[in-house]
Design a protein that fits this description.
With about 270 residues, the chain is α+β, with helices and mostly antiparallel strands. About 25% of the residues lie in helices and about 20% in strands. The structure holds a DNA duplex (16 and 16 nucleotides).
Length: about 270
DNA sequence: CTGTTCTCCTGTGGGC
DNA sequence: TGCCCACAGGAGAACA
C-alpha cells in the first residue's frame, strides 16, 4: 500500500529514466481505474517531452508541453521502468505503458485499480484534486503552530484529523498509527484536546517517521528498473501497525486494535494517552 | 463547515 | 488440507 514514502521513492525511481524523453506511444489496456483513463492518451502524449517529474501529496505529476499527467497509485499501484519494452510482456494488471523514444517503457501496474492516471491540460496548481490540499508534512509549512490552528476546532479523533488531506497530506493509515504511537497520543483523542507539547511531539513524529521511511526507500530504488520481482516496495518495520495482540516494543503490553473512521487502528493503551 | 458513511477492486488470510 | 468469504485500504463523493 503505497504511502507517501513509497510515492516519493517511486518519483525518484522513475524520474531519471523518463526526464526529457519523448513519448513514442501510450498503450491503455485497462481504462477502468478510479476515474476513466483518457481513451485518447496516445494521441495526447505522442511526440511530447517529459519536462519535469514531481510529487504533490501522493500524486505524481509528470509535466509535458501541453499539460500534466496526474498519477495516483491508490492501494496497490506501482510504476516500473523497463529499458527494453519488447523484453517485458505485459501481465494481468499492467494497465498502461508509456514508451519513450529510446525504448524505455514506464509501466503502470495496479491489481485493485484504486489508482488514477489522468491527463490535465493545465498547470498542476489549478487542478481540482490538488487545489485544496494541506501542506506537505516534510515542508517548512508543516509546524506546530500550523497544526495547533488546524486542530483547534476539531472534535473528531486526532487520527482522523491527521489523515485528512486538508490538514496535512500524505499521512495514511500506517503512518498515522505510527506517528501517534511515537508521540504517545491515543488515536481516539479529539484533535482539539491535544496540548501544545503534544502537538509539538506529534509534528516531529510525523516528520520523523516519514523522513526515515523515505531514507529506507532510497536503498530499493534499483527495484524500479528491469525488475523481475514484484515486491517493489520496501517492507518497513512498524511499531504498532499490524501488531494486534503482539507485545508493545516499549512496555510489553499487548497492542490493541480498534476501528476509527472505518480504518484499522493500532495502539498501545499503556504508552498512548 | 464538520463529521460520517459509502464506494471502487482483487489478493490475501483467517476461520472452519 | 482445502475452500470460501470477509477484510483491507486512499480518498473523493455523497449525505446528514
Amino acid at each position: 500500500m503505497p504511502e507517501l514514502p513509497e510515492v516519493e521513492t517511486t518519483l525518484r525511481g522513475i524520474a531519471p529514466h523518463i526526464q526529457g524523453k519523448s513519448v513514442v506511444s501510450a498503450t491503455v489496456r485497462q481504462s477502468k481505474l478510479r476515474w476513466p483513463v483518457p481513451e485518447d492518451l496516445n494521441d495526447i502524449l505522442q511526440q511530447q517531452n517529459v519536462l519535469s517529474c514531481s510529487r504533490r501529496a501522493k500524486y505524481l505529476i509528470i509535466r509535458f508541453q501541453t499539460g500534466i499527467l496526474l498519477i495516483h497509485l491508490g492501494m496497490s499501484g506501482s510504476l516500473r521502468i523497463y529499458r527494453n519494452g519488447h523484453d517485458s510482456e505485459a501481465g494481468k494488471h499492467d494497465h498502461i505503458d508509456l514508451v519513450f523514444d529510446d525504448g524505455t517503457v514506464m509501466r503502470y501496474h495496479d491489481p485493485r485499480r484504486f489508482g488514477a492516471f489522468l491527463w490535465y491540460a493545465g498547470a498542476a496548481e489549478t487542478h481540482p484534486l490538488l487545489a485544496k490540499l494541506g501542506p506537505e508534512p516534510l515542508s517548512d509549512d508543516f509546524h506546530a503552530d500550523y497544526l495547533a490552528q488546524a486542530f483547534q476546532k476539531r472534535q473528531s479523533p486526532v487520527k482522523s484529523a491527521l489523515m485528512d488531506n486538508a490538514v496535512v497530506v500524505g499521512v495514511g493509515n500506517i503512518y498515522a498509527n505510527e506517528s501517534l504511537f511515537l508521540a504517545g497520543i491515543a488515536p481516539s483523542r479529539p484533535a482539539a484536546s491535544l496540548t501544545r507539547p503534544e502537538i509539538e511531539l506529534l509534528t516531529e513524529a510525523v516528520r520523523g517517521v516519514l523522513q526515515r521511511a523515505i531514507e529506507k526507500g532510497g536503498s530499493t530504488l534499483r527495484d524500479f528498473v528491469d525488475s523481475e520481482g514484484n515486491s517493489g516496495y520496501f517492507q518497513q518495520e512498524y511499531r504498532v501497525y499490524g501488531r494486534h495482540n503482539q507485545p508493545c516494543l516499549q512496555c510489553g503490553h499487548p497492542i490493541e486494535k480498534s476501528i476509527i473512521g472505518q480504518r484499522g487502528t493500532f495502539y498501545c493503551p499503556q504508552c498512548q494517552h
